Amino acid sequence: MRANRLLGANLVEQNLVKIEHLEAANERLLELIASENPRKSTVLGVLAYEMKVVREDDILHHLVEDHSLGLIDLRNYEVSEEVKKKLDLGACWATWSVPFDKDEDFHFIATAYYMSPAVRTYWEKHFDGPIIWYGATLEMVADYLEKLGPVAPKS
Fold first, then answer.
1. Percent of all residues in the chain with a pLDDT value above 90, rounded to a whole number
2. pTM greater than 0.85
3. Which end of the chain is more exposed for a tag (fewer CB within 10 A), N or C?
4. Longest dimension (CA), the chain
5. Are 68 and 46 in contact (CB under 8 A)?
């Protein structure tokens, strides 16, 4: 829930959505969380795909231009066994992020929620060493997580 709240606040702050749209999306999000379907429990999904007040492509463009993030397509990416055995699927769903590789001390994370400070803080505390962030769509993160297992978060 915190990841969604802070993402929404940042989207408003960056003038990507209006406050009244965020308020409506938050109300809808509460309904979706009650349904316990992690794939739909996302304020970004409500704003982009139900309300259509922002395009996910615009947010990804913002990440590239303003935050110098790269983008990643996870569709054919296989997670290493080392990363997989340490993966908390509940945390991944709650943060809409997935650690997908590690090289020496560097951790690679794909996320649809980079603009949520709570998400970045969570993963920075979770891993020792630097993180290299990549932007990804909600669909790519969800598809990837569903391939890894059925664990869903309690928001």
1. 67
2. yes
3. N
4. 45
5. no
Q: Cα torsion for 53, 40, 62, 17, to the nearest 10°?
A: 30
Q: Quick check: 152 pLDDT over 60?
A: no
pLDDT, one tens digit per residue, over 51-61 is 999 999 999 99
Tell me the two tokens of residue 87.
Answer: 């993966």
- 140: nearest Cα among 79, 72, 68: 72
DSSP string covering 33-83: HHTT-TTT--HHHIIIIIS-SS-HHHHHHHHHHHH--EE---TTPPPPHHH
H/E element holding 111?
A: strand 106-111
| Region 70-148: CATH code | 3.30.300.160
pLDDT at 151: 53
pLDDT tens digits, one per residue of 108-141: 999 999 999 999 999 999 998 899 999 999 999 9
Instruction: For the chain, give every domain's residue range.
Output: 2-55, 70-148
